[in-house]
TrEMBL record:
Keywords from the named record: Membrane, Transmembrane, Transmembrane helix
Organism, scientific name: Eudyptes sclateri (Erect-crested penguin)
Keyword Transmembrane among UniProt keywords: yes
Residue ranges of every copy of the Dendritic cell-specific transmembrane protein-like domain listed in the record: 235-427
Official protein name in the record: Osteoclast stimulatory transmembrane protein
Keyword Transmembrane helix recorded: yes
Length: 437
């Protein structure tokens, strides 16, 4: 492995064997990265497979030429890998989490809301139809009661009104109400579909922009680090490297490294400074806020499913409500009531007819003919995947410091002569500081 890395990090291969070894190394790296790039564009960013294939092939060929022919490009590419463990890598993973939640959770919430609206629409339709049918009951009762009044009037034959029936203005045709309800339901459905499409398109475009910007920034950050490493001897130069230890031993000044152990750290050690710990804690708090927002969205998914499932079950259990209309009518006639009242004699009334009937109707709020889509339960794998990605994100926060150290080590292995100059500069700096003290 050390020999392979030596061939990979050399500016120029020493012989033909190293040249072929370097080409095979670059080819293997290109094939792996090209496959990951295709899968990322097709599965995550949702590009068409034609465009994903063309972009992956073009990117792979360009990457192969750059790695094989340009030595600094190999260094930059090698530093991109640990740079994924820094802030830009967290952005990529966070955008992936957002895409997973929006694509899988938001349509589920909207589907369950549609189910709730379908239940409401079914109840409104059946209840309105049942109420309209109840007016026919009133019409029947009024005509039968009117017939009874007419019979009493005919039997007396003193005063006869033109018609003894009650007149009701009934809505015979209920299609207008159904049509309005259908149009309202269709409008609500179109509005929800438009919102769903807008959210998906917005998140998809935003995710593509974030992903593209993050990939460009990864390359820029690695290039910026290499540029500062090669032009500024003070940049990221506070590590006790093997070259610095060897230099101090050769000049018999090993005590300089022992006395400066508080200010210097070993690149392979696990020690974190207080500033690095505080920065990790702040970033962890910000990541926790993003996690809470996603948990709220997933909790809304569970809540919408619970409400939709309860609404469907309760609607199926709705019982019919009985409605009873009772009419009790007694008709009597008095004999000369005015004269008997003047003579203060007891009045006598003769019964003509008794009318007593009951009419029954049932109000129906739900029907088996209603088209209600079943509620969609939340996908448990979404919570599992998001939880796993956030575990990786929290780990990346604390690994970011070590990723920077690895970038420095990669740059040092590609430019060993410059690493020696940096070690000499740090040694002289420690010597001056020791003399001043």
């Amino acid at each position: 492995a050390a020999d392979l890395w030596s061939v990979y990090s050399k500016p120029v291969p020493a012989n033909g064997r190293e040249l072929w070894t370097l080409f095979l190394q670059c080819s293997c790296v290109t094939v792996v990265i090209g496959g990951l790039f295709y899968n990322w564009m097709f599965a995550s960013l949702e590009y068409s497979w034609h465009l994903s294939t063309a972009m992956a092939i073009s990117f792979s060929l360009l990457l192969l030429l750059s790695l094989f022919l340009v030595h600094p490009a190999r260094c930059v590419f090698s530093m991109i890998m640990p740079t994924l463990g820094t802030k830009q890598g967290r952005k990529l993973l966070l955008s992936t989490c957002i895409m997973i939640v929006v694509v899988n959770v938001t349509p589920n919430i909207i589907s369950n809301i549609k189910t709730i609206l379908q239940v409401i629409k079914c109840i409104c339709k059946n209840s309105s139809e049942s109420l309209l049918n109840s007016t026919a009951l009133l019409e029947t009762a009024s005509w039968e009661f009117g017939d009874a009044i007419q019979e009493n009037v005919h039997s007396v034959n003193i005063y006869r009104p033109m018609n003894g029936h009650f007149q009701f203005s009934l809505l015979k045709n209920s299609s207008l109400i159904y049509q309005q309800m259908h149009l309202a339901g269709e409008k609500i459905g179109r509005d929800f579909l438009a919102v769903e499409v807008l959210v998906k398109d917005t998140v998809r475009v935003g995710n593509k922009l974030v992903a593209g910007f993050s990939m460009l920034y990864l390359s820029f950050e690695s290039t910026w680090y290499l540029k500062n490493y090669l032009t500024n001897l003070r940049f990221d130069n506070f590590y006790i490297t093997k070259k610095l230890e060897r230099l101090a031993v050769d000049r018999k000044a090993a005590h300089l490294l022992v006395g400066s152990s508080k200010n210097l750290i070993r690149p392979t050690g696990l020690k974190l400074s207080r500033e690095e710990v505080m920065l990790c804690l702040v970033q962890a708090m910000l990541l926790t806020v993003a996690l809470m927002l996603m948990l709220v969205v997933m909790a809304m998914d569970h809540f919408a499913f619970s409400v939709a499932d309860t609404a469907v079950k309760k609607a199926a259990q709705f019982s019919t409500v009985p409605v009873a209309l009772s009419i009790k009518y007694n008709a009597k006639i008095g004999i000369l009531p005015f004269l008997l009242k003047l003579l203060q004699l007891p009045q006598e009334e003769l019964p003509l007819q008794n009318f007593e009937r009951s009419y029954h109707h049932y109000l129906i709020f739900s029907s088996a003919h209603c088209r209600i889509s079943p509620p969609t339960p939340p996908n448990p794998s979404v919570l599992l995947v998001v939880g796993l990605l956030f575990c990786i994100l929290y780990a990346i926060i604390f690994l970011e410091t070590y990723a920077h150290r690895l970038c420095r080590k990669i740059a040092g292995s590609f430019f060993e002569s410059w690493e020696e100059k940096r070690a000499l500069y740090l040694y002289k700096k420690l010597s001056r500081k020791h003399k001043e003290e």
